[in-house]
Every structure is written in structure tokens, then in C-alpha cells.
Amino acid sequence: MVKVGIIGYGYWGPNLVRNFSAVNDCTVAAVSDFRKERLALVSKAYPSVKTTSDPDEILLSKDVDAVVIATPVFAHFPLAKKALENGKHVLLEKPMTSTVKEAEELMGIAKQKGLLIMVDHTFLYTGAVRKIKTLVDDGTIGEMQYFDSSRINLGLFQPDVNVLWDLAPHDISILLYLISKKPTSVNATGVSHTKNGIENVAYLTVNFKEDLIAHFSCSWTSPVKLRTLLIGGDKKMLMFNDLEPTEKIKIYDTGYNHKTDEEKQRVLVDYRTGDIFIPKVEMKEALYAMADDFVSCIINKKEPVSNATIGLEVIKILEASQHSIKNNGKEVVL
Amino acid sequence: MVKVGIIGYGYWGPNLVRNFSAVNDCTVAAVSDFRKERLALVSKAYPSVKTTSDPDEILLSKDVDAVVIATPVFAHFPLAKKALENGKHVLLEKPMTSTVKEAEELMGIAKQKGLLIMVDHTFLYTGAVRKIKTLVDDGTIGEMQYFDSSRINLGLFQPDVNVLWDLAPHDISILLYLISKKPTSVNATGVSHTKNGIENVAYLTVNFKEDLIAHFSCSWTSPVKLRTLLIGGDKKMLMFNDLEPTEKIKIYDTGYNHKTDEEKQRVLVDYRTGDIFIPKVEMKEALYAMADDFVSCIINKKEPVSNATIGLEVIKILEASQHSIKNNGKEVVL
Amino acid sequence: MVKVGIIGYGYWGPNLVRNFSAVNDCTVAAVSDFRKERLALVSKAYPSVKTTSDPDEILLSKDVDAVVIATPVFAHFPLAKKALENGKHVLLEKPMTSTVKEAEELMGIAKQKGLLIMVDHTFLYTGAVRKIKTLVDDGTIGEMQYFDSSRINLGLFQPDVNVLWDLAPHDISILLYLISKKPTSVNATGVSHTKNGIENVAYLTVNFKEDLIAHFSCSWTSPVKLRTLLIGGDKKMLMFNDLEPTEKIKIYDTGYNHKTDEEKQRVLVDYRTGDIFIPKVEMKEALYAMADDFVSCIINKKEPVSNATIGLEVIKILEASQHSIKNNGKEVVL
Amino acid sequence: MVKVGIIGYGYWGPNLVRNFSAVNDCTVAAVSDFRKERLALVSKAYPSVKTTSDPDEILLSKDVDAVVIATPVFAHFPLAKKALENGKHVLLEKPMTSTVKEAEELMGIAKQKGLLIMVDHTFLYTGAVRKIKTLVDDGTIGEMQYFDSSRINLGLFQPDVNVLWDLAPHDISILLYLISKKPTSVNATGVSHTKNGIENVAYLTVNFKEDLIAHFSCSWTSPVKLRTLLIGGDKKMLMFNDLEPTEKIKIYDTGYNHKTDEEKQRVLVDYRTGDIFIPKVEMKEALYAMADDFVSCIINKKEPVSNATIGLEVIKILEASQHSIKNNGKEVVL
What we know:
The structure is a homotetramer.
Chain A: E1 2-7, H1 13-22, E2 26-32, H2 36-45, E3 50-52, H3 56-59, E4 66-69, H4 76-85, E5 89-93, H5 100-113, E6 117-120, H6 127-137, E7 144-154, H7 163-178, E8 183-191, E9 201-208, E10 213-219, E11 221-233, E12 237-241, E13 249-252, E14 255-261, E15 266-272, E16 276-278, H8 286-300, H9 308-326, E17 332-333
Helix pairs in contact in A: 1-8, 4-5, 5-9, 7-9
């Protein structure tokens, strides 16, 4: 039985408590939040769960095996560090930390102490992304050529991180989950309309040694909501539209072949459009699967799907993107 | 009566002949193309129009007042130069030329000789773009904050120019038509999957001194077709979806206000979503309006809507974008 | 303080308890259901609410002022009758009863005893329908000419009533709410694929003395889900698409004028298409507003929006439609 | 070589001349129309085609083997009769004639004289309908259970026939093409808003001995355009949306099984939703295939796809529907 303590009971908190409560071999021992009214909600819904406004009562407790950290990003590192140092396994909400250095330090402590550290990139547990992973792994898509994400809406401006830190981690983690190629550099541009240097519209290109390109378009100031991912392979292409209630993934038997016309020294391109296939996608709650993976990897000492390596790579890309934006879009090597 | 000669009778040629034939105070005198079978089509449809495989029969003809150049881009400059030097007004298909230098030289000759030189950015004559221009000019949109274009499809790879040169001119010309602010620099990234260095997927950011950002996403290798433009102002936002048969423009009474909370030193943001308005848009053929503007500006010695200044600015941005792509996305000042 | 007892804790039960608990001047006193496991859910979520498997403990209780009946339709009449006879106000889930006779008898008892009887046609409390009501009442739409509803999906086959009884009440109640004209007759056709005489696909036309027509298309066996209402007036037309998350209502400045050409003895028709307007619609929970209306009408002795007269008219149309289906679609006068 | 004469050069005329000109073993000999300005268009586009304002110059000409009749419906019968009596094969635009009696008389003459009579139900030659035919014939769909058509728009009011005669023939011909079952009766309802008894909104149910139902919703007064066909089989279901540029047909692996629960005497239903498949559909011009079928069936003395039997059945259903509408929707046996 893994006894979990949860620090931070904001927007995401109730979902975490509900799902960890439902996972086998797991119990929610305690929840902490500095807001009394939030703790009252916990007590009402889960009378047996201990509540506290002092996170140390979780971090130092002998009745807690694992700590889930669902606070604002800036608090991730100190809380996680203390948890690890006190022998607790750690689950961090995304993004993992504010800096690469922090993430690497946490991973070092975890490794040294034999503890699990994991990041909640929930999307990796959705039926849709699992389906896409299968289509990439079994060769249906072929060699990936581009990955194009649009994640825009009239959104909740974050006070401390820009729109890339807020919205891009979802799709960056999906990209890293799907491929084994390593990104080599990034370029990012953006603009802030809030006079505080925090970009609310931003664009990120992730470059690879191979002829693969990944692009992320993020905005908190769009009148329309988009959650769209286009993935092109040299065999097939697909679109993942997360706003579609059932037809989330469309696989296009679409492609082109190019050959160099030696005589005329130019490239000839043949196009092909064919059938479209919309696979049924499992609709189980992704957060439950994430919680279950965390608990089961603690018990079985395995590596979770949404592991710290992916979490760290996401931070590397975000940190580099911030450097690029502040330097007028120049390439930042990873 | 303006006598027009048309050089190049490819995909766009029949549309040009049909529309210039319909314009008042204008007649199509001659068409040239080096392909005999194309000229046969002209003769069949327009028996009274002279055809020739030698462009000089148009460029040097005393029966021609104005020359329309609808050839591949690389031929624009020599043909236009000869036309101007022989006292003809010139209309160039987009993009104007292959380089900024060429465009500037042509404009210099035209100015010196008192001739009209104009670029066919047809979109500026569509009912939709004219409507958007009105909404910008009358203050409905407010101060423009972002301009976000997606123009992707499974497209006709061009053999000599990349996807930005092919697809971005439409939306760049719209941007320049709408605003009086001057772009200051660009960043561009892209990838070629055809082993010839010609990018088939590319992204372009156009930067301004003010907190306005413009972004262009272009692809010849998308399984879905998009022709979408999002424009955000500080009063309203709009979406132009050119694939919608009738509901092309949606105006969102959507916005946000931010104020700095002095005490807590953070930015507070209020959101507002309201009604949506879909104005009726005139559906007349834009190419006719463009042809009519060309002829009428020759006669009345006026400046056309789609003038050479816009054409030149488009080339400046494209040339800079190419420089940026080849230099790993670095900022290129305009 | 109105003390409410709820009979039936099925699919809709938790929503009823939650909303009645939130309404001012109202408390949920007791919930009854014959299934022990359902009652356990009540106790867990609402420890202070009394639970019982015997509805009489609600119907005869001195601690209950009003009874909400959320059972299968066949049980509506006996439960409501007993409630009224014991001096309780009654709210019935839709459809009100299985027959017109039952509905009329209940209304008679309520009138005689000075009690409120009301039917939960929740749609009448949605922001969208309230907006449409305004557009009809203020003359925006003009004289209503047609009302066309499609409500289809791969649905929950009901064991005792056909698809019209299950799905049409929503849109029939909306129709009756919007207009003051009285329907005069109905025609209905349908088919059963379940060998039990219960139609799973059915079509209903409701006729009026005036040149207004209403049509309802209902199916439990469609691969796609539709929740669409088209309303045509002689001034404007509108579409209500309840599946749209935000753009639920579109108002079209569309119409036509006809005049009789005396000489040629034929009708000439002019078309007009204009702007489209998507009003912002309030998104508050409709069920809360319904519950609040019930409680407040008990206290203030007023008539609710979703009153028994509408409930009865819905049953009259359903009963007639069933008669029509079983008689090969013949007209059944109301 | 089949020499074709075309009577009527209205909206559809240019398409007919263009396609018959392109068909092998066929030549367009003459076109007649009583409007001089229409004939001038023919002469300009096709200088070699004879034009005349007197249809007899086609009907009685020795240089004409086959007559295409593209006039208003009321003129179909007299023109076709005269053509057949003069030994010409006949192609009629849809609907075939104004009455069943006329259609039967024409078919009798044609049979007696060994001439081909055919109706232009163009939809039967589209790639989409041919694909659907394959899916029905090869058992993919299973036993057809319902056929539900919506064909509505802000349309061209016809001066002499109602909206069912105008719009329903397309989908009725598709229905008859797909199945071998015979319709047994119809019910129809509708309304006229033009004070001339010509319905502009109408609904038609076509009944079968088996548990198959077909329904047609037609309107000339809708603010939105729909061209949708839902077909449900006991194995799969499909939607044909003719307004989709490429994704015209969606095949849903969706269904349900019902079994009677003997003990509880009720029907239990299991639902199944699965993958969706969008087959590529051939985009060749259907009218060309229709013209080719006409010519080739004349030469090879075969039966065309869009044969007179289907044309006649369509008229039977339309005539019965008119009878039903005028008799308050009563069932009219076919």
C-alpha cells in the first residue's frame, strides 16, 4: 500500500485526490494547502484524509511514502527536494521545474536514494496519444517529417511564466514520447501585450539533425480555441484534434514522392491522396492511468511512461525557448 | 482604350484574358507563350486576340500600351524591364521579382518614365479583405496586436522557390495593406524533404517596433487544407477563413484587460467574450476588380490598391526570410 | 423553507439533489429509491438527507412540502396523485404522464387543492432557449413559418416508450413555449427494428391553422449525434445547435419576398441573404434555474415557466402522434 | 456515331452540350431554345452546332438520332412523345414527367418502337453514390433499416412544382438505385408560404413492407444548406454529405443488437461504436458518365444505370406524395 500525500489543492487537486483514491494499492494519506477553505473541501469530500496547511506535515511524515506536488511551478523544486531528501517518491505536475538545473538536481537525488521521480504529463496516458504512439511505432506513419501543434484559446494568463511554459509542455511531451530522435536546437519568437515581459503569443520551432521539424503555436489571446496536432510521416499523415468529442484522430493515406530529374536538374513530385481512417480511441480517464502508473512503478521499481527524462527534456526545450525569445529568435543549441 | 498584352498563358492566363477582356476602356491585344498548344487555346476562345511565341512582339509592339507578366518568377525582371524601357505600363503576377534589387530597379525605371508598375496581389480586391480593411480603418478592431496566418495543403511543389515564396505573399500583402506600421525584422525556420534545399514546410515571424507580431505557417505537405487568418486587436478579434463558402469572416467581441497590481507586483487580467458577428461579404470576382484598377490607374494616373510599394515590401520580407532560414532562424533586419 | 422529497435516484437524481440543495429557501429532506446501492450514494454525498426505499415515507411525510418525481414514466401518475392528495406540491420529470387523461386528472387535483404541479422541461431554462424566446417575442424573427427539429444519436433505447416520447418532448416544449398559436393536428410515421412495436426512428409533423409547420425527426439509431433546431420567420431565420460549445444560436438575416405577378399568374420570389449574428448565450446551469423556479413559485404562488399547461400539451401531441403512427400516419386532430 | 439534338438551353444546357460533345461515338447536331440570346451563346461556344428556335427542327430531323429534353417539366411529355414517334431515342431531365400516366405512355411507345428512353438522374453516376452502391451490394452495410435525406437551402422557388418535385428526385432515385425492395406507400406533409398552394417546405415518408423506412426533408427556405443522407444497415451505418469537398462518405462501424429478455418480457439492447472509415471517392464529372451511358446503351442496346423504370418509380412516389399532402398526410398506397 502506497501512502500518498498531496501538496496543493487548486484547480487540479480534486482530480488528483479522486484518482489516487481509486488506484489499487494506494491510499491518499494527507492533503496540504495554505488556504483553509480549500482544505475544508477536502474534508467534506474525503473525511478520512488528513488535511494540513503545513507542507512539512507531509514532507516529514512517516505515514507518507510518496508526495504529489501540485503547486505553482516556482515551488516545485524546494518541495520536491525536501521530499526526496526525506525518502519520499515524488510526482510533479508539469512543467517539472523552473530550470534545467533544478530538474537535474532532483533527478540526481532521486537516483542516489533509489526513489522514483516522475512528471505528470497526463496526455501521454490518453487513448488518443497511445493510439498515435502505436501508429508511429508499428511503422504506419513511416519516418516522421513534421510535427505541428496549435494550442490557442482565450486563456488564463499565468502571472509568472509565459504562454510556452504554460501550453507547450503538453505537445512537447507528446513529441518526445513519440520519437527517439534528439532535438538539437530551438528558435522561438513571441510578444507580450501585458507590459510585463511575459509573452502571451509565442511560436517555437524545435530543430533536429534529421530533416524533421517540430513547431508549436501557442496563444492565450485567441478568440477561437484550437487543440490541433498535425503529424506528417513519409508513409501517412495524421491529425489529432483534441476538441473533437469522438473523431479525435484522422489518419490520411496521403503522401508524395519526389525524384530528381537528372536531365532537367529539378525535383519532380507525385501526389497521392487516398482513404481516411478514424480509429476508435479509448476514452478512459487519463489521469487515473497516470496515477496508476506512478503507484505501480513505485511498487515494481519500474520506469513510468511519463518519466523524469521526458520531464527534463521538456524543461530543456522551454528554457532554451525563453533564451531564444529574449534574444530575438536566435537559434539556441540544446 | 488601354491595349493590353499578356505574356505567359499558364494556369492563371485564361483568367487574366477573360477579365481584361471584360474591363471597360481596355482590350486584350496580344498573348504570348512559348507553348504552341497554349496559344491554340487562346485563338479558339478569343479569335480576335493576336498570339505569338515571341514576347518581343508584345514588348516592342506599338499596339500595346500595357504588359501583364504571368510567367515563372525568374523571368519577371527581364521582361518587365524591357517593357518599361519600351514605354509600357506593367502588371506583374506575385511575387513581384526574385530579389529586392530587381524590384527597386523596376520601380526606378517606372518612376523615371512616368509609367505604372503594379503587382497582382489579387486578395486585396476580395470582398473579404476589403471588409477587414474597413474594420481595421474604422477602429472596430482597435490597435492590431497579432496577425496569424495558416496556409497549408498538399500542394504543388514549386521547382525554384520555397513554400514561403509560393504561399506567404498572399497573407503578407494583406498584412501590409491593413496596417501602416513598418515591419522591422523577420525570423524564419523551415525544412526541405526533397533533398534540394527548397523548404516545403516553413514558418515566418515578422517583427515590429510596436508590440505587434505577425506569423505565417506555410506547408505543401499537409493532409488538410487550411486558409486561415486570425487578427487580434485590443478591441475585437477576427478570423478570416477563406475556405468557408459564405461565412468567411467572424468578428469576435472578445478581449481582455490587464492592469498591474502595484501592491502584489503582478498583472491581473480580465477576460471578455461576447457576441459574434458574421458580416455579409461581397462575392464579386476579385481578379476583375484588380484588372479594372490597373486600367483605371493607367488612365487616371492614380496609385492602385495593390501598388508596387506593397509588392516591394513583400519581396523584402521574403528575401529576408530566406536569409533567416539559411542562417538557422536568426533575426534578419529589414 | 420548502422541504423537498425526491422519488427516484437514477441518472438524473444526483443532478436534482445537487441543484435543489443549492436553491435558496429550500432543503432536500429525503430521497427514495428501491435500489439500496443508489441510496448509499445519496448518504455518502449528502449525509444529512434521509433515505428510504419506501416512497410512502416521502409521500405521507409531514416533513415534506414538495415531491420531485424522477421515476420511469409509468409511475408518474400514481405517485403524483398520492403526493397531491397528501397536500404536496409536485414536480414531474418529462414527459409528464403516460396519457392525457392522467395529466388532466393531476392538474384537476392540484387546482382543487391549491397546489403547484409543474413539469421539468429543463430546456426552457437554458440561456439559448431564453434568448430565442426574446428574439421571437421582440419581433426579430417575425411571424414564425417553420420549426424543424433533429434530435438523433445512437441512443438509449427505452423499454416502454418510443423514440418520440423519449426525445421529442424537449423540442415540443420549446415550440409551445415560443408561440401562442395552438397546434391543430399531427401526423407521425416511424419504424421499430426491435420487434416489439416500439419505434426507434420516427418523424412527427405538427400542423397549425396558420401556415406554420413544425417537424421533429427523432432516432435512437443514428451514427451521428444531432441536436439541431431551425426556426424560420418571415423576417429572420435562426439555427440552434445545442452541440456547439459556444456558438449555439446563429441568427440569419435571410429571407424572401413573394408577390403574385397578376399578368403571368405566377409567384415571383426575391431572395435576401445578409449578415449572420451569433449572440452570447448565458451558460448558467438550466436545472438550477428550473429548481429555483419551482421553489419560488411555491412560495410566491406564481405560475412557473415550465408549467403544467405546457406539460399537458406535450402529452397531447405525443399521444396523438402514437395514434397516428399506429394508423399509418393519418392526421390525428388534437 | 449517335447524333444528338438538345431541346432547352437553360441552366443545365451548357453542361449537356459540353459533355455530349466529349463523349465518344457521339456528336451534338443541334440545339433548340425559344430564346434567341441563349442560342447565340451556343453558336459562340460551338460554331458547328446548328441552332433553332423550333424544336420540330430537331424532333423531325433526319440528322438527329437521339433527343435530350431539358425544358421545364410540363413540356417533357409532348416533346418526348413526338421524338419517340419520330424514331428518336430520348433522354429526359429529372423528373421524368408530370404524371405517372405520361411516363407509362412514353415507356410504352419506346418499347413498341425499340427505342431507348432514359432519365437523367445524374447522382447515380457520381463516385459517391457508386461507392455507396458497392457498400450496399457487397453486404458491408447489411440489411438496410433506414434512409434519411435532408436537402434544404434558400432555394430557387419553382413556379409550377413544389419542393418535393424539385429536390426529392435526387435522393429518391438514389434510394431506388440502392435497393431491390419495393416501396408500398407514402405519407407527406408540407406548407406553402407563397399563397399559391405550392409547398416550399415538405416532408415525405416512404414505407415498405419490411421494417425499412425512408424519409425526405426538403426546403427552399432554409438559411443553411444541407445535402445529407444517412443510411442505416444492421451491420454498419453511413453518412453521405455532398457538401464536403473530399470527405463525402463516412462509414461508421456502429450498431446495436437487441434480444428479447423472455423472463422480464422486455428488449435488451447492446450498443457498439467503432472505427470510422472515409473512402476515397472518384471525382470524375458525373454528367459525362451519364451522357456516355446514354450513348453507349443506344449503340449496344443495353439498359442504362439511370433507366426509365427508376424514373417512373420516382414519379409514382412524387405523385403519391402530392396526393398525400393535399389530403392532410394520409397514407397513399403506391
